[in-house]
Amino acid sequence: MGHYPLEDVTIKIGNKIKLTGKLTISEIAYAFPDGTRSSPTGFLSGNVDLTLHINNGDLYVESSESSNSLTLTMPQKSEWIHGGKRVTGDFELNFEFSKTRIIKSQISKKHDHKFTDLNIRLDLSNQDAPVVTIDNFEKIGSGETRKKGRSPRKKDEQFFINETMDQLIVKYFSEEQYPEFDLTFPDGTTYHPSMSPPDVEDVGYDIYFLANEGAHESYYAIQNPPQGEYTLSTPDNYTAIVGDHQWVLYGPNSPPEIIVNSPASNMIWNKTSDIEISYTGLDVDDDAKISLYYADNNTGKDAVMIVAGISEEYSPKTFSWTIDDSVQSGSYYIIAKIEDEVNAPEYACSTGKIDIVSPWAPQTPANFMANSNSGVLSLSWAENPEADLIGYRVFLSDTPSDDTYQYNFDVGLVTGFEIEGLTNGKIYAVAINAINYSGLESVLSDPIEVIGTDIQGSPDLCLDTQNSMISSSTGKLEGTLTIQARIKNIAEHESFSARIACYYGQLSQSNLIESRLIAGVGANSYMDVLFEIDSDNIPSIHDLQYFYINIVDVVLPELNDDNNLDIIVNTLPFVQEISLNAGLNLVSLSNMPESTDISPIILSISDKINYVASYQNGFQRYDPNDLKNSTLSDLLPGNGYYFDMKESTTLTINGSIATSSRFLGNGWNLTGLTTRREVPLADAFNSIDGKYTRVWALENGEWQMYDPTNPNPILSKLQTLKPGMGYFILISTPSTWTYGDAP
């Protein structure tokens, strides 16, 4: 099926699973109870008891039962209306499709499907009256409504197709139950619903029947319908069976077209007159809108709007563009867009450009001169006369032939500037412009070409992230950590020295570990720079997840410093130990386990467990002695769980640093900390202050409560939160809880 991203997706199946985030269809496969799995072809199948499983980076949807009540199939055999889906039970399924990606998908309590270039064949039998929305098609005809209770009428009705069409949809809707009807083609061939292909993977069929029982409607979808007379046939006295009913025809909505007629050739604005833009728009429906833009390229990248919402049927097809002080000096194409909110927008570009010199912009700096000597490019220019000037900008290119400037320098209001690090014998181009307080820029000066006259050249230092690492003496996230930053010179010229700064958690002076001066790094070579930090002195473990490396004060100066700041990700394992007492324990995971699968996590203590239970997304239970009926399959950081133990023991979980926040919905939430230290409760809940009303904990067999309106320890015995323990939190306003660590 290819690789199509799912963005901003939420999938809820019953109350057993909630899947959020960014996924990819080709990463989803169905895992059968016997351990086999389907290839990732885009099929999502299973019943309401589905769970997620991650193995070697792949995400699988698993089911512990053999019967399925949800099947979603999206093969891409046809280009217009193909695929399959069945919904049963109490679900709502929302889909919006485009050619290359699913834009939105959610399951709750209504049905909404849209036909576009990547479509699905529907077989909907849900009692909740799903709705099929047909997009990219328009109504082209309909029959008279047949009324229930009137005298019997002939059961056949005809319609004519007298033009070539890519697709045709014949819809029949009724009052009391979905209608089944036959459709006879101009050649005399009659199709019945039972003749529709039983397998959505079948190809070679040009007609499909779609039944939407809950909404009392059905469809024939026809590819390349032949011209001529068609006959719709229903049984005798059909109104007595289905009530009032009527048929409607839908054909593809023709996409609009647009052409920019002028400027057809390059022109120069005279600084006084409006610029006349002419275009030709075509839309059969006359419901399209046209927008005009200007851009310094013919692709529309970074285009700026001139006007929007011009009706396609409006005449004349011209627009007078009044140039004002918002338009920068430059050479611009005119870009036109036409859209009808049904088809994808169409764009067109003018063949000619308009040269605009803004009368409100500064003049180009005069007497611009450049001199290259000993690796230094010395520049000078005359001072501009404008009182509202904010400064000058110098542009440098090391590929003068392509008119592209790779580097630019804002130099303020000075009238001279030096650029160091030029390579001996290399040709450069340099230019300058002026900028005022309104942000308007002058026309760029004519470029000056210079040749570097020094053998030094410019180095280019960066962090080699693949060969940088975090380590400790124990191999765990504890004690003294050593940060090895590999500084790599990717240029052909050596550096003489540089300063390397290392920060933990965030790039701020308070988080600076050390700043070290290093000697030169040879061309295409590297140097390892070491830093150390005592992790026990860092309050929040989340500040130990990322280490920032900043490279400054490089000698010889770099022309490119965009890659001087980068991050080393800490992959040291964060090991959690949870003490479990005999009887009932309310616990949570503070780290992200190596695998969230419950079986390997509890393997070492499984003989001491009666059961594990969760109330996240409904009640789920895991019994190591009754795996067939166990519904809890994963243990996740930040979630709370009941552990009913036969005897006391310690659960050790190997993992990594988990996320520093989680969403808490309205009502009770069973959750816990993803920190490594005990935290005063009031401090831990700073981010949701005023949005929770109760907190309950079970510690050593005793329930403890905290009431934020009565925080006195006499009434609120629960005063601290501990990693490894689970908590019931009553939320009055849905919020994101950001965990805090004790200082």
Automatic annotation (TrEMBL):
Cleaved signal peptide residues: none
Residue ranges occupied by any Fibronectin type-III domain in the UniProt entry: 361-456
CDD domains: FN3
Protein name: Fibronectin type-III domain-containing protein
Native source species: Candidatus Magnetoglobus multicellularis str. Araruama
